[in-house]
# Entry
Amino acid sequence: QVQLVESGGGLAQAGGSLRLSCAASGRVFTIWSMGWSRQAPGQQRELVARINRDGLTTYADSVKGRFTISRNNAQNTVTVYLEMNSLKPEDTADYYCEAIQYGATYTWGNGTLVTVSS
# Structure
């Protein structure tokens, strides 16, 4: 199994920056891809960014050019970061780390709240 621990998030002003981190432990060698999704109140969860084992990245159109996802692989842990710049009030949401293992097994973190004030 894989365990995910998220950190970061909080309150930022519009135009500001925040950084999210997600540390994966356990059977990390089974992880193909990691990423972040978000869910705003009353809305469906949407993918924000994803990075696979080869470093290939995917971004939602709404965050392209503002958010950057990166990944650090260590022997027993994998950490993924989401650098969020030029934040907008519409970025306000609960952000969830995800890990996709070979065989398409998904693991989710507990979520961290990002609030952007105008």
About this structure: The chain is about 0% helix and 60% strand. The chain has a mean pLDDT of 95.
